[in-house]
Amino acid sequence: MNRRHLLQLLIAGIALPSPLYASAKERITNIRAWHDQEKMRLVLDLSGPLPYRTFELDSPKRLILDLDNALLNASLDDLQLDGSVITSIRTGIQAQGTRMVLDLAGTVEATSFILPPGDGRGHRLVVDLIAKSAMPPLNAPPAQVKDVRQRDIVVVIDAGHGGKDPGAVGAKGEKEKVVALAIARQLAQKINNQKGFKAQLVRNTDMFIPLRKRVEIARKHNADMFISIHADAAPRKSASGASVFALSENGATSTTASWMAKRENSADLIGARDVLSLKDKDPVLAGVILDMSLTSTIATSLDIGKTILGNLGKVAGIHQKRVEQAGFAVLKSPDIPSILVETGFISNANDCRQLTDPRHQKRVAESILTGIKSHFFSNPL
Ligand SMILES: [Zn+2]
């Protein structure tokens, strides 16, 4: 810690405690950190859940963490910050609670969330920082884009099921694998007609491809985005409409989502760790880095999913108004935003009639394209 920081810390620390601070309800009981050169995870153990805010400030770069109604009851002395994206941490008293200032070595992408009690620990505030230089191109600052990015935005389209795996089957034998391929082909054609975009189909014929392989194909093509097309069945024949899914790290957002994921995963099993080459890294660190990468990728996936769902709603009924999350194996690329679109229920008579109609397939593909375009236009690569 340099002298200036020490001084600021002293000024902050010696200030007379405000009545609010004295009556703070929650305690920050411990602070832990893991890092490599580009990524850092800070975990604050809390006595209970509390409101907090983060914001970034420039010159010098720093991330401010305001924890309302909380008293710092932990030492920062043992935190290993050397070689991390954080150069120092300062703390101060605010009327509201505790303020932590993380001085940064450069620009970072920060995400944070409160973890509920689990794994023998109580409430935790998790702050993930990834150095901008370590981010995938998707998150590169626009100023660099012109120099760095000279290739098209690659969308890998996965038509669900295929070959020996027909997927769901409709009342008159309509097969999900056929519907999925038809819509996937339409979408690929429409994407390839767009300047600056390029589509790659995972399968262009009626063939079986294991889920693990589908993820590998996306990686091989350097996908900027992965979209898996389906048309599932439900036990309830009245269930209808399209849904969009993203990966969940901790369980499904609804029973339907969990049920769908189980069905879609049944073709085979895959672990996200299989597709990352972190063998040379410490296993704990590898896990942490994987989690961090997933957290940021899932946020992007949810964003794309929301835009696509909004556009799908203009041409088809919607089953769930929000993007659902579950443990879909095919969405487990840690660094490629991935979504799964259930275009409708093949088990529903009305949906099935539409899904097998080439005009409707075209409309669905068009609406997905509009969603993809509007996402990448507002989040340029
Ligand atoms: Zn399916």
> What fraction strand?
25-35%
Number of E-type strands: 15
* Rg estimate, integer Å: 24 Å
Order of helices and strands: HHEEEEEEEEEHEHEHEEHHEEHH
Q: What is the overall pLDDT average?
A: 81
Bound molecules: zinc ion
Number of individual domains: 2
Shape: elongated
Structural class given helices, strands, pairing?
alpha/beta
Low-confidence stretches: 1-21, 136-149, 268-281
- Assigned CATH superfamily of the largest domain: Zn-dependent exopeptidases
Per DSSP, the total helix count is 9
Give the biggest beta sheet. Answer: 6 strands, mixed
GO cellular component, one term: outer membrane-bounded periplasmic space
Enzyme class: hydrolase
Protein name: N-acetylmuramoyl-L-alanine amidase AmiC
Signal peptide: 1-24
Describe the protein.
The chain has 381 residues and is α/β, with parallel strands linked by helices. The protein has 2 domains: 133 residues, Immunoglobulin-like; 240 residues, Zn-dependent exopeptidases (Aminopeptidase), CATH 3.40.630.40. The protein is 31% helix and 25% strand. The protein contains 9 helices and 15 strands. Strands 11-10-12-15-13-14 form a 6-stranded mixed β-sheet, with helices on both faces. Helix 4 packs across helix 9. The longest helix is centred in the C-terminal third of the chain and has 30 residues. The two termini are 37 Å apart. The N terminus is likely disordered. Zinc ion (ZN) binds next to loops. Zinc ion binds next to loops.
